[in-house]
Design brief:
Layout (H helix, E strand, L loop, with lengths): L7 H7 L12 H11 L4 E10 L2 E12 L2 E8 L6 E7 H5 L21 H8 L2 E11 L2 E10 L6 E7 L5 E7 L5 E13 L4 H4 L7 E7 L4 H6 L2 E4 L7 E9 L8 E7 L4 E8 L9 E5 L2 E8 L2 E7 L3 H10 E4 L6 E2 L3
Parallel strand pairs: 4-10
Antiparallel strand pairs: 1-2, 1-9, 2-3, 3-4, 5-6, 6-7, 7-8, 8-9, 10-12, 11-18, 12-13, 13-14, 14-17, 15-16, 16-17, 18-19
Helix pairs in contact: 2-4
């Protein structure tokens, strides 16, 4: 059940910096540099985020730390919104989702640090590079990942030549339609991020914390045993985290992260107590689809920047095995 865990030596190798010159690195190595950049480099800047017909300008302060990263995002256009995020190192390396469940805030998701290896194994994308470009005054490496089936979108990036940070990120559907775009207009790399830069400016700031779930098999047994059967091709479970969205004393959600190497999909599992109404529904915001359904006294919510058929299939593949009688419980 938990055989997807990485061997320790392979995992430690992911923590080493990638320093290959731009002309010598393969597209797969550039993807790994991109994933590595988020927990290795601190910066502040402004980016434009387009999702469907909506365009937001967002100010970001990002602090890379030994145990993960913290960042503050504040919208500069439209309704005032502020998000404070804290992500531990293991969750960041494995590409844990950093948005709220509904996918209404934030930006395109970040792939796991071992994206290149997963893509080589899965062969679900065709990788290519048209060459170099320039974004926000910085030279960047163009990287295109064309999806080979309808369970995923195509991705286009322009990665900062020195660090691998994505200065441009786009999602394209199977018809060639642009679904989401993030592009930096201003960027400054920082040696030090002062604490006041990460402090919320308003009392209504949304706090999101992501951390790897403590324990392994024991943690699963405390909830019963959750697993997946017949996932979409190429997707596999890469980490289980706990995630808090509300007050510090709120019970965290159990959060599974699935990935094909580029796309990441989150499965949130929340117990439904007395008075809680479980429901079945589907929603969409830009490239992000969400599908929710009740299962074994829990609300299961699947969210990802993937087509609707993908989140629905993952929801249908979610299984629960009771620790009392070993029986599988699944509704279809």
């Amino acid at each position: 059940m938990w055989g997807w865990r990485l061997h320790l030596s392979a995992f430690l190798a992911l923590l080493l910096p990638l320093t290959l010159p731009a002309g010598e690195a393969s597209p797969e190595q550039w993807l790994e540099r991109m994933a590595d950049s988020f927990h290795r480099h601190s910066y502040e800047g402004t980016f434009i985020f387009q999702r469907g017909d909506r365009i937001d300008t967002v100010r970001v302060v990002h602090a890379a730390e030994e145990d993960g990263y913290r960042e503050r995002l504040q919208t500069l256009t439209g309704s005032a919104r502020e998000v404070i995020r804290k992500v531990d190192r293991i969750s960041a390396i494995k590409g844990a989702r950093i948005e709220a469940k509904g996918g209404q805030q934030g930006a395109p998701q970040r792939p796991p640090a071992f994206a290149g290896a997963m893509l080589r194994a899965n062969e679900r994308y065709d990788l290519s590079s048209p060459g170099l470009d320039r974004i926000a005054g910085f030279p960047c490496y163009q990287l295109h990942a064309a999806a080979r089936d309808e369970y995923r979108y195509s991705h286009q990036y322009c990665l900062h030549k020195e660090t691998g940070l994505p200065l441009l990120s786009e999602l394209i559907d199977s018809d060639g339609q642009l679904l989401e775009r993030l592009v930096f207009t201003e960027l400054e790399f920082l040696d030090v991020v002062f604490e006041e830069s990460l402090a919320p400016r308003g009392c209504d700031a949304r706090h999101i914390e992501v951390r790897a779930a403590e324990g392994s098999r024991e943690e699963g047994n405390r909830h019963g045993e959750w697993y997946f059967d017949d996932l979409p091709p190429g997707f596999t479970t890469i980490i289980v985290t706990e995630r808090s969205f509300g007050p510090e004393d709120a019970k965290p959600s159990l959060h599974f992260v699935l990935s094909d190497g580029l796309a990441t999909v989150s499965v949130y599992v929340d117990p439904t107590g007395d008075g809680d109404e479980a429901f079945k529904a589907a929603t969409r915001s830009g490239a992000t689809h969400a599908f929710a359904r009740p299962l074994a006294g829990h609300q299961v919510t699947v969210v990802g920047e993937v087509p609707r058929k993908t989140v629905e299939r993952i929801a249908d593949a979610t299984r629960f095995r009771s620790v009392d009688n070993g029986a599988d419980t699944a509704t279809r």
